[in-house]
């Protein structure tokens, strides 16, 4: 089933995505960077299955927890996703646009991985018609 994701805007009058850089959420340095050819035409949407965050401070803490788990427990080079979206409406840069992720085995070098902070059932997903 295809779904359309609606993300609440922090500033409804804004026409821009509120993107927070790795520095803004105090990301650790990546261990290595494998680059993929861009643009890509495939996007995978995941959810973190953790608690949702509603403000920048709690979202940063969730991101650091996920990054530590992925790097320390899983042994990956960085957080798995290219971008992570908080319930606060911010989009957080994880690996970014052109770095190969660790989100979907067999597809990481040709796809972007987005993840919602929290459980996907708590987000407003509307089936595409």
UniProtKB/TrEMBL annotation:
Pfam families, per the entry: Amidase_2
Protein name (Swiss-Prot/TrEMBL): Peptidoglycan recognition protein family domain-containing protein
The family this protein is said to belong to: Belongs to the N-acetylmuramoyl-L-alanine amidase 2 family.
Domain Peptidoglycan recognition protein family residue range list: 17-129
Domain of life (superkingdom): Eukaryota
Alphabetized SUPFAM superfamilies for the sequence: N-acetylmuramoyl-L-alanine amidase-like
Presence of the UniProt keyword Cytoplasm in the record: no
Keywords, comma-separated and alphabetical: Membrane, Transmembrane, Transmembrane helix
Lineage: Eukaryota, Metazoa, Spiralia, Lophotrochozoa, Mollusca
Residue runs in coiled coils: none
Transmembrane segments: 106-126
């Amino acid at each position: 089933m295809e779904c359309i994701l609606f993300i609440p805007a922090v500033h409804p009058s804004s026409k821009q995505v509120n993107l927070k850089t790795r520095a803004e959420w105090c990301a650790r340095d990546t261990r290595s960077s494998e680059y993929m050819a861009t643009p890509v035409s495939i996007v995978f949407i995941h959810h973190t299955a953790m608690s949702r965050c509603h403000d920048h401070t709690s979202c940063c803490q969730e991101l650091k927890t996920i990054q530590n788990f992925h790097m320390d427990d899983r042994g990956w080079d960085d957080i798995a996703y290219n971008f992570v979206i908080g319930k606060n409406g911010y989009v957080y840069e994880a690996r970014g646009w052109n770095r190969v992720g660790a989100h979907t085995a067999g597809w990481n070098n040709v796809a972007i991985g987005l993840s919602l902070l929290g459980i996907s059932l708590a987000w407003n997903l509307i089936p595409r018609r």
